Amino acid sequence: MRVFLESKIILLNYLFRPILEVLFVFNLHEYTLSAKVIELFNKLKIQSYSTQKIFNFQMQIEANNYLVAVLGAGTMGEGIAQTVASSGHPVMLYDVSQQQLQIAIENIAKRLERSVKKEKITAQKRDHILENISLQKTLGELAKGKLVIEAIIEDLAIKQTVLCEVESLVTEDVILATNTSSFDLNKMGNVLKRPQHLVGMHFFNPAPVMALVEIVSSKHTAPLVADTVFKLSEQWGKSPVHVRSSPGFIVNRVARPFYGEALEIIKENGIDAADCDAIMRDCGGFRMGPFELMDLIGLDVNYAVTSQIWESYHRHPRFAPSVLQKELVDSGQLGRKSGKGFFEYGENEVNSSAKNAKPTPAPDSVILEGQGKLPKSLQKLLKGGSVPVQNNSGDGNIRFSEGTIVVPSNGKSSTERSSEIGQSVISIDLCLDFEYSSRVVLAPAQECPEKDLQQAVGLFQSLGKKVSVIKDIAGMVVTRTVAMLANESSLLVEEEVADVAGVDLAMRKGVNYPLGPLEWAEQWGWHSVVETLENLAQVNAERYKTSEWLRTRANIS
Question: Which one, 41, 46, 108, 217, has least CB within 10 Å?
Answer without folding.
Answer: 46
